[in-house]
Amino acid sequence: MTYTTIIESFHQGHAIDSYKLFGAHFAYEAKEGVRFTVYAPNAKEVQIIGGFNGWDGENHLMERTTDTGVWSLFIPGLKEWETYKYRITSWDGKILDKSDPYAFYSETRPQTASKIVN
Fold first, then answer.
1. Range list of H helices, the chain
2. Structural domains of the chain, with CATH
3. What is the pTM of this model?
């Protein structure tokens, strides 16, 4: 299934394999790293924050890849078990730190970050 087909299927409500697109996936894009993809249709801006960047996403701004609210970013050099969240800025200026709904692994309560797992 292609990227476009998965997104179309997701929006139609019957994408049983959307986990192949969304979440954090190890990838190779000229360097080894992780591709993050999230659905945030009402976001003005989305950043990746985590232990690898001191929970400061200024240098990890995601790009809106479709006009339907899909955001994506490749970060080279990340290792398995790194913690992360999405920092979402809404159009009214609210900032929300959210765990990944498509994460393959998460921290144990009371922590709430997602973990990169191959």
1. 3-12
2. 20-115 (2.60.40.10)
3. 0.87
